[in-house]
Amino acid sequence: MRSISLCARTSCPYLAVSIHFVLTAFALHFMTGHPASADEGTVNSELVFIEKTQVLGLIHTKEETIWNLLPRAVPGRFTYAELAEFERRIRNLSLFDHVDVAIRDHRVVVDVQEKFTLSPILSFTSGTSVKDLNATGGLVEYNVGGAGTQLGGQFNYSQRGPNVEVWLSQHAFQPDRFAKELKGFYHVNGIRFADSANSWTRNRIGAEFEIKGPYAYGSPLRYEVVLEVYRELIDDQKTTRPPNGYYVGVAPEIAWDKYHWHDLVPKGYRVTLELRPGYFLGPNQPRHEGRLRYLQGIPLGPTTVLMINGVAEVVNNSGNPNHSLLIGSIAGVRGLSDNLYRNQAQAYTNLEFRHAIPLASRWALQGVVFSDFGTFQSFTEEGKTRAWRGAINVGGGLRLVPTFLANTLFRVDFAQLLAPSPNSLIQVGITQYF
After folding, report:
1. How far apart are CA 14 and CA 349, in angstroms?
2. What is the DSSP secondary-structure string of 159-194?
3. Which domain holds residue 45?
4. How many angstroms separate the CA atoms of 200 and 236, rounded?
């Protein structure tokens, strides 16, 4: 009863407000009228004939990588709405910090400023103990062969164990191609629980193969399917011992994508629904999962934006807490321990107010004020569920943003966790929190 009353007094009211705010913002996109404009990506049926192409500023990116994003080959007739969508897709490749698409004398001219695309992966999060820290190091090339294909690998210490991942991924913005991604992983995770001394080590080795459907111009709807397999082994257990086995699962995902990526001021929104039906062979346990995510950027000025990230997740209760969700500082509410709450269901919202100050050409300093809040229902070591709990924090941080680098910046955040128990956290990373 104490945890329920704590939730009622702290984060659950904030969560209800955030869900209402997010749903209202989402509904406004469909209820509010907008004048037709290419910049907003709204319908503009006026046709323009294009017979030639020209691209400026490419260094390593191949020209066909750009032109393959068009809805049809040149020469041909295009609407201004299609050209605006073409520009959005070039931006969302995350390979350029400047993109301009213009029509000049029946010629489409693309002017870009290309980033340095070989980037380190580095992050660090302090924990309540040395065992609970999170540290990641790796390297990723975002533009293999000049085709916008990613090749990366990383070593990560999290959940009290070492984790290794390698992947190769094609970009998913081409309108006439199935994009593919292959990932291999080896995870060693220490499993523990709040208010319990019971623990064990979970080892998983496996792979994922993902197919993303052609991204047609007629609709912002996107779809993809992931096949995942892994071997799960348990050792170093104390008292309770979950079973070993093999997992096979399929994860269809659909997204309504109107999001415009930008280094400093993203805009638009994306809604993603992911369903993960699966089965754990050996003990013959169903392992199903569902996830809904909402991401939105609301520009408030040329260098100012309000960012919203909302996530709701649930898994079936198979009686095995190895099949569970995690909420913590890495994803969820900054300040929560990252290896303590194994949940059947959880929901959280991240709000960030970001304002950037230009320092020099292709450099900016971004200040951030944020609040994360959520609620979750945890498993016990026997697979039973506890009462719902709430979490909320407030905080602020700085980002040093070199826009000439792909998906790379220097981030320092300070979070003060207010519930479920006070805690302070300094988090360092080289990407945005979301």
Report:
1. 9
2. TTEEEEEEEEE--S--TT--EEEEEEEEEEEEEE-T
3. 34-114
4. 5
First-last CA distance in the chain? 33
List per-block mean pLDDT (blocks of 10 residues) for the chain, which spans 434 residues: 37 47 46 38 72 95 96 94 95 94 94 93 72 86 96 93 97 96 96 79 96 92 96 81 93 95 95 96 95 98 98 93 90 88 96 97 97 95 89 97 89 95 89 91
CA distance 111 to 91: 11
Output the six-digit token pair for 200.
């064990």
Domain count across the chain: 2
Looking at residue 366, its amino acid is Q
Amino acid at 236: D
Listed residues 47, 79, 114: the one ending a domain: 114
For residues 97 and 142, is the Cβ–Cβ distance under 8 A? no
Amino acid of residue 429: G
Strands 199-212 and 161-169: unpaired
Do 110 and 239 share a domain, yes or no? no
The pairing of strands 52-56 and 107-114 is parallel
Q: How far apart are CA 373 and CA 63, in angstroms?
A: 44
Same domain, 386 and 398: yes
CA distance 42 to 133: 46
42 and 34 Cβ atoms separated by less than 8 Å: yes
